[in-house]
Structure formats: structure tokens, C-alpha cells
């Protein structure tokens, strides 16, 4: 499902226009990004939790040359599905 199909499904489910669904989705994504950037977790009970995890610096290998390279430490977004979402899939 791509974004357009998702927005169509949301607009039908919530009985709102596609424009309103698009605005709401953009607002949700923006709020989640801002919270994660501040270091906060975003928990949506029944759906899941968005968190930021720290990835340590490590040594990698250039696939073309085989040369070892240093990969810097970084922060990566993470999502852990909630129980209700897991149960809905099984």
C-alpha cells in the first residue's frame, strides 16, 4: 500500500476528505519526528512504540574494494509493535 492508497483508506474509514486525511497524516509524522529528535518515545497504546536507538561506531568493509572503513556512531528510529497489533496479525 502506497501513501495515496493509504490516504484513500483512511479518508473512507474516518469519513473525511482525502485532503484532511493528508493533513492529519503529515501532522502525525511531523509530531513523531519532533518527539524522537528531542529524545522522547512515542507510545500509541495498542499500536506500538517509536523510539530512538543508538548504533555504536563500528568497522565495516567497502564491498567494491574490500577495504576496511570506519562507520560513525548514529541514532536510528525504531518501532516496536504493541500487543494488539501483533494479535491482529495472528
Automatic annotation (TrEMBL):
GO terms for biological process: chromosome condensation; DNA replication initiation; DNA-templated transcription. SUPFAM superfamilies: IHF-like DNA-binding proteins. It comes from the Bacteria. One of its GO terms (molecular function) is structural constituent of chromatin. Histone-like DNA-binding protein which is capable of wrapping DNA to stabilize it, and thus to prevent its denaturation under extreme environmental conditions. The keyword Kinase does not apply. Signal peptide: none annotated. The lineage of its organism: Bacteria, Pseudomonadati, Pseudomonadota, Gammaproteobacteria, Lysobacterales. Pfam families: Bac_DNA_binding. The keyword Amino-acid biosynthesis does not apply. Keywords: DNA condensation, DNA-binding. This is HU family DNA-binding protein.
Amino acid at each position: 500500500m502506497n501513501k495515496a492508497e493509504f490516504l484513500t483508506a483512511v479518508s473512507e474509514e474516518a469519513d473525511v476528505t482525502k485532503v484532511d486525511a493528508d493533513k492529519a497524516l503529515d501532522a502525525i509524522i511531523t509530531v513523531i519526528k519532533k518527539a524522537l529528535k528531542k529524545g522522547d518515545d512515542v507510545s500509541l497504546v495498542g499500536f506500538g512504540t517509536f523510539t530512538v536507538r543508538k548504533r555504536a561506531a563500528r568497522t565495516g568493509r567497502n564491498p567494491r574494494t574490500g577495504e576496511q572503513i570506519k562507520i560513525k556512531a548514529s541514532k536510528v528510529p525504531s518501532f516496536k509493535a504493541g500487543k494488539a497489533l501483533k494479535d491482529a496479525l495472528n
